[in-house]
Amino acid sequence: MNLFYQLMESYQRGLRAVFTPHPFIPLSRMREKSLVFNDILQNEEDMAAAAMLAVEEGFDSTTLPFDMNVEAEILGGEILYHEETEGHPVYPTMGVRTIQTTEDIRIPDNVSETGRMSVILQAIRKAKEDLKDRAGVGAFIPGPFTLAGQVLDPEKMFVMVLKKPEAFAAILERLTDLLCRVRDAYASAGAEFVTVQEGGATTISPQSFEKLLSPQLTVLLSDKKAPHVLSLTGRSDHFIDLLLACKPDALGVDQECDLASVVERTPKGMPLFCVCGAYDMMAKATPEVVRETVRRCITTDRVFPLPPADIYPPAKPENTAAFIETARQG
Length: 330
Fold this sequence. Notes:
Elements: H1 3-12, H2 27-32, H3 37-42, H4 44-57, E1 61-64, H5 70-74, E2 79-80, E3 93-94, H6 117-131, E4 136-142, H7 144-151, H8 154-163, H9 165-189, E5 193-198, H10 206-222, E6 228-232, H11 240-245, E7 250-253, H12 259-265, E8 272-275, H13 281-284, H14 287-297, E9 303-306, H15 317-329
Parallel strand pairs: 1-4, 4-5, 5-6, 6-7, 7-8, 8-9
Antiparallel strand pairs: 2-3
């Protein structure tokens, strides 16, 4: 059985798994291993080593890659890497964005060999080999709307949503085609689950979401080789029914949602991943506060608490330990 489902079943029997469907990098462990942030984004050996850190910390899964620029790079986008600021890693950003219409989206024939894909696929294989089924290995992709925000000028994109919805729908369709190819490559390399992160989709109306985005998410979630977690950030309460209609295997929400409402509307048996605590909790709170926050989050045996920010601001080792211990014991 897929390890994702094994962990879900164990959790629901009271044997709590501590799952991370999003990347989590304990910065202190990364320093101990002399790993450099920009290297773990671009080098397969370092990427696999960084993926192991979450498991070494006590999580029952690990997820890679660690940034969300992979697909934009496949489409020819310029990725800007940055030096650390005041000792803290800085995530890469997008440079010049050249896509304006559907015709500008040129999907390579062999996605697996474009950009950093070969590096990531090798890192997944290596992490699987090193873990030897001790923990799950998952993959992390943006949703179509999030990817659109990386390859299009954001301001023009939102104008297109309102004034040229048909043109934007065509762009989303092309981007979904690419995302399907990417996640299939990850699954073929051994990824046991895929997290689809729709970071900015709550910035549009539920009506626009249903008309423009729901059809593409349904396609992305309909023909898959591994279970998918559909994760939405921001105030997602008004979108939960739309997400469920796309038929994900699990849902992910963050601190801004009304968790009680989401739990009530989510089918029994469907895992629900919820980021708990303020974004800087792991960096600034005490272990006692972390424990209490996690306990409040676990309102049902379907809720998997997730830690907020990992490297920025950097999580304290004692807080990570408190989070994992409490999430496992309840």
